[in-house]
Design a protein that fits this description.
The complex is a heterodimer of chains A (about 425) and B (about 210). Chain A is of the alpha+beta class and about 425 residues long. Chain A contains 17 helices and 8 strands. Chain A has a single domain, classed as Cytochrome-c3 Hydrogenase, chain B, CATH 1.10.645. Helix content of chain A is about 45%, strand content about 10%. In chain A, the strands form 3 sheets. Chain A has a 3-stranded antiparallel beta sheet with strand order 1-2-3. In chain A, α3 packs antiparallel against α4, α4 packs antiparallel against α5 and α7 runs antiparallel to α12. The longest helix of chain A is centred in the first third of the chain and has 30 residues. Chain A is globular. Chain A starts with 8 loop residues before the first helix and ends with a helix. Chain B is mainly alpha-helical and about 210 residues long. Chain B has a domain of about 130 residues: Rossmann fold (3-Layer(aba) Sandwich), CATH 3.40.50. Helices cover about 40% and strands about 5% of the residues of chain B. Chain B has 8 helices and 3 strands; from the N terminus they run ααααβαβαβαα. In chain B, β2, α6 and β3 form a beta-alpha-beta unit. Classes of the chains: A alpha+beta (about 425), B mainly alpha (about 210). At the A-B interface, α2, α5, α6 and α17 of A face α4 of B.
Chain lengths: ~425, ~210
Amino acid sequence: MTDPLKTPYREREKSISLDAMNGESPISGMELEPETEMLTINLGPHHPATHGVLRLLCTLEGETVQNVQPIIGYVHTGIEKSCEDQEYWKAITFVERMDYLAYYFNAYAFCASVENLLDEEVPPRAQYLRVIHMELNRVASHLFWLGTGALDIGAITMLWWALRERDELLDLFEMSSGQRLHTRYFQVGGVMEDLPPGWEAKCRRFLAEMPNRIDQYEALLDENEIWLRRTKNTGIVPVEQLLGLGVSGPLLRAAGNPWDLRKAMPYCSYEDFEFKIPVGTVGDNYDRYRVRMAEMRESVKIVEQALDGLPEGPYITGNRKVALPPRHELATSMEALIHHFKLVTEGFRVPPGEAYVPVESPRGELGCFVLADGSSKPARVHMRDPSFVNLQALKHMGEGTVIADFIACLAMLDPILGGIDR
Amino acid sequence: MEVVRGKAPGSQEDFRARQLSAQQMLRGDLDGQGLEEYVEKRLLLTKLEEAQSWARKNAIWPLGFGLACCAIEMITVIGSPRNDLSRFGAEVIRFSPRQADLLILSGRVSIKMAPIIRRLYEQMLEPKWVIAMGACSSSAGMFNNYALVQGADKFLPVDVYVPGCPPRPEALMYGIMKLQDKITNEPELGWRERYRAEGTEEYRAEGSEDIA
């Protein structure tokens, strides 16, 4: 007797007989040759997977993505134009709201551009404090990417785990500056305040705990077959093409190019710290995930080193033409009162010129261009936002993949629409 | 673990005795003083509308919709274990406007986005509520410029304004609690009734002769 499972399905199902059909198909239209038709669907601007108000016109053949056209501008806020109406020290508040997960980086790029124009030295303690906050911000941004990106693929636990650690970081930001998001901690010439008592201990507790937490995330994801199958060998773009598109950050590093501005063009005393640049080998979504996880570990190491070697000294420049005098001087010094009045009412004037300072934000090269005309307000502020440039790669990441993997590609791209539209 | 049925903490009576009195009450055996006591202790009298709005306020389903920075804090309210919006019954995020009750405008509303938000609002079924989260959607905040709608209440009715840039998670939770108060105390359902906006319909209702 033959194995019933090896006989064809139709022979086993004796109850179904197609004899009465005289060879015709039971469904009308089936006798025609199957046609392939392209389908254009609209994703967004309100869609859970677009990470903001991005709109994507996808051309599909069956379930395969053939073309993707992003349409942006749904959160265009006119921040660059608004900056032109603000004094330099007030414009910091505006630039922070561009890429709203990397506010310290926005503020740093702007402040460093203005410091270049002013030829202002930043005290070493302020530089270290900036590094500490920027690296903590990088961890916070990657945690948010991890939570929402894993959620897109269906791993909802990661959202809760990642947000749990992110809340600890936001507590640290709140402790040092008073705000959770958009802290405006960086000033032109330094930082707003020194670290409050107890901050360092709290930060060290977090740093000691964080590597274990990353181990836990990886234990959950790296042995999850769904996660591996969804990310491995999907969305591969060759490194030459990425370079041609101007892509930077974890996307480029995942493809094997170790371009990181912290090493390539050290700024803000990054040359003092020892850290590695994680790179991928294949350039698929899995490498993008691994690179960001490794970057979190490296950031934790940088913050530890910066806390260990935190120099003594002032946290903001002593130049009273740029930085506000300390509060206690206002009661005793007439000169301090005049400086305070001038800074608060008019702001400081910046000599004519232009400056561009790029920094390595969690998403790639974030650069700020400032054009000064000699007044106390910038003539032009422009941000080179990495999300905007990286979004060009989405078409190449998504082409030829099925639409479910395309959603994963978008998650691994990590676009921030506030940065794209500004 | 062994489950032992005993006295409920704080109660003077035995569980069995309470069960018996409930049985008597249902059979109609209880009368006089016993019935008075029973009603006072065990029954909650309310109006149907109040019970309905009590249920409604504890099951607000927000639309999964983020605009900008405030969306990050909104996700922190919903997703973070520290805040846990499910205490208010409002953690069920619906990504389809047809299933959602609450639109949280979390971020800046650009002129390009305004018609889309209006369409989402119109797709939501009554009763529906709107929270303007943060300075931008309440009044455009610091962005007094060409790109933003100067306050989302220019084009849709807003029930609760939450100040902040961005508001703390606690602030948004307080806003949701304020909305719960509003649902309990102002049971008129449709936004047109709530905001005295009858007669501002933009379309002609079927069978009507003229627009009021």
